[in-house]
Amino acid sequence: MSDRILVQRIAVFAYHGLLEEEARLGQRFYISLDCRLDLAPAGRSDDVAHTVSYADLTEIVTRIATQRRFALIEAVAEAIAAEILATHAPIRSVRVRVDKPSAPVPAVIEGVAIVITRHRTGAGA
Description:
This protein is of the alpha+beta class. The protein has 4 helices and 4 strands.
């Protein structure tokens, strides 16, 4: 499936991380989605009922990232991917990227990020 919905760099302030300071102080994270689905029905009909709402995807990301605390950004991404696939049947696969620009590492870095891709059972990308 080559059709995609991209939602890029949703900014959230959250409390994820292994360190006590991260749990107490929090920090900004950026989360991006790359959803693969057939967009031809929406393109032909010009009807939002034939696609997936960007607002709905953003709400899932924001809710999971801000209402739950995770030690690992990998777990943040996994929870987001699982809910998107569970609640939006047209989406065949989803790629979730979580950027942590203020990762507490003893080096000067721009940030760290993880990327996962999850597929609906029985679906290829």
